[in-house]
Amino acid sequence: MSILQKIADIEAEMARTQKNKATSGHLGLLKAKLAKLRRELIEPKGGGGGAGEGFDVAKTGDARIGFVGFPSVGKSTLLSNLAGVYSEVAAYEFTTLTTVPGVIRYKGAKIQLLDLPGIIEGAKDGKGRGKQHKRIIERELEGFGIRLNKEPPNIQFKKKDKGGLNLTSLVQQSELDTDLVKTILNEYKIHNADITLRYDATTEDLIDVIEGNRVYIPCIYLLNKIDQISIEELDIIYKIPHTVPISAHHKWNFDDLLEKMWDYLKLVRIYTKPKGQLPDYTSPVVLKEGKSSVEDFCNKLHRSIIREFKIALVWGSSVKHCPQRVGKEHILNDEDVVQIIKKV
């Protein structure tokens, strides 16, 4: 039996099974089996045979954004109008068959835009059919291990050689208990582990942590073709979380879109200041929030700088005095100005 058939059988059995306390163990086992089969589908065992045709594009700039969606919803038009890149645009499906990259400059940062081929329901299972729907796209990406607008589960999981299962719950659990956790771990042939549940976790959360290959990505939903709806409908759309209504064709609401993209990318711009000169505000060094220490800044400039680093002088919101002498561990804020002083 093929992997696709096994996946279909498990999904059918899950749909048939009533969800209650008595069936939670059985459903947990099915979900674990499903996660393993989907991983096999994406990463075949054995390594034999070449990889399928992918959409790999050389990374340029400070960040990259992918346009994912159904065919003929305006992704190519959006890329053309945002970045001035010509991606074949036509009023029928599947005009973009390979990834088309473009680059925009926004607030001093270079952001790479990728027009990805149209996603269709069943793509993660190697087949294509589907209706246009936000939930379908989410389900497709979840099948590939991509989690949208979610934080990694706050679950501590550590395999060990002996000692059995040690399960600690810091808050009361509505779904996971010792028996269900053991059932899921047995499917992965894990019999000895320390697990700490720091919040009310689900079966899917635990499986994601055990699989360890999930990717957590911020996502903005673009609702295109707002030129075809009323002002009242537009007011309702604006209240949907993580959403920006636009018209790719008429270039409407691009300012809101670019601002929201900037917020979700969480980039930090740092300006350099050579000794005795004014800061260079034209080309900032762009870092990611969470990786914006003085050491990260030095490494982005050149790997050799940190070896000669003595102190840094910083002007901006991350310091109390301007300038302030700081070490390499100091965390920089957006639009700080930095001057590096090297060892003599």
From TrEMBL:
Q: Which domain of life is it from?
A: Eukaryota
The OBG-type G domain covers 63-266
Q: Which InterPro entries match?
A: Beta-grasp_dom_sf, DRG, G_OBG, GTP-bd, GTP-binding_2, GTP1-OBG_CS, P-loop_NTPase, Small_GTP-bd
Q: Where is the signal peptide?
A: none
Q: Which SUPFAM superfamilies match?
A: P-loop containing nucleoside triphosphate hydrolases, TGS-like
Establish whether keyword GTP-binding is in the entry.
yes
The TGS domain sits at 266-342
> Gene3D superfamilies attached here?
3.10.20.30, 6.10.140.1070
What are the alphabetically sorted keywords of the record? Answer: GTP-binding, Nucleotide-binding
GO molecular function, a single term: GTPase activity
The entry's protein name is GTP-binding protein 128up
Q: Which organism is it from?
A: Biomphalaria pfeifferi (Bloodfluke planorb)
Kindly list the organism's lineage.
Eukaryota, Metazoa, Spiralia, Lophotrochozoa, Mollusca
